[in-house]
Amino acid sequence: SLSDVPTPNRLLAWIRECSATNVPPLGLSKMFSAPSNDIAGQENAYIAGATATATPTQVAIVQGYVDKLLSLTESAVIYAAASAPIGMSGIVVCKRGTTAAVRSASVVSWASYIAALPIGGDLPGHLVRLEVLEDCLMNAGAYTVSGLALSGGISTTSNGDIVIAVNSLATIGADPSTLT
After folding, report:
1. Separation in Å, CA 6 to CA 16, 35, 54, 83
2. Looking at residue 115, what is its pLDDT?
């Protein structure tokens, strides 16, 4: 029956509680759950920290915690979110003498955007947005950019955004300092 399936909100609350109350705290700040596509009545949860996917130890601790709270007829499996390294390429032009400052500021800005993305990327569409990279570079002091492209994920949209899997955590595959 439907009452035998742990609801996503309850499961995610248990994960947050486990992360916060464990000694030391687990630092899990990102989580997503969905019904299993393979096993009826099972809820799958994907966990990660702010900038990296969960470790096997974190997954085991959370699974053990959740298992103690499930009823005999409920089922939930905890997974580390898959890592989706996002690479980039392109040409960035800045004023002479400002290259280091532009690189530094854009790295901080891009890392902040990536860290703020939930598991599964921006909704709708599970995206990592190319326009954000361009904004990071321009706001950091770039004069102009051309040929910017993102790589990684499972596909690219017509406007250059990267689509990542619903259970993936976007990570920095290459920072803006690698742009030419």
Report:
1. 15, 9, 22, 26
2. 92
Calpha distance 101→84 (Å, rounded): 28
Report whether 128 contacts 111 (CB < 8 A).
no
Q: Quick one: pLDDT at residue 6?
A: 56
Annotate the chain with DSSP letters as a single string: -GGGSPPHHHHHHHHHHHHHHSSS-----EEEEEE-SSSTTEEEEEEE-SSSBPPHHHHHHHHHHHHHHS-TT-EEEEEEPEEEEEEEEEEEE--TT-HHHHHHHHHHHHHHHHHHPPTT-BTTTTEE-HHHHHHHHHHTT-SEEEEEEEE-SSEE-TTSPEE--TTEEEEESS-GGG--
Query: What's the average model confidence in pLDDT over 132-149?
Result: 92
Predicted pLDDT at 1: 44
Both structure tokens of 15: 């994960």
For residues 163 and 84, the answer to whether their CB atoms sit within 8 Å is no
In terms of Cα–Cα distance, which of 91, 90, 68, 76 is closest to 46? Answer: 76
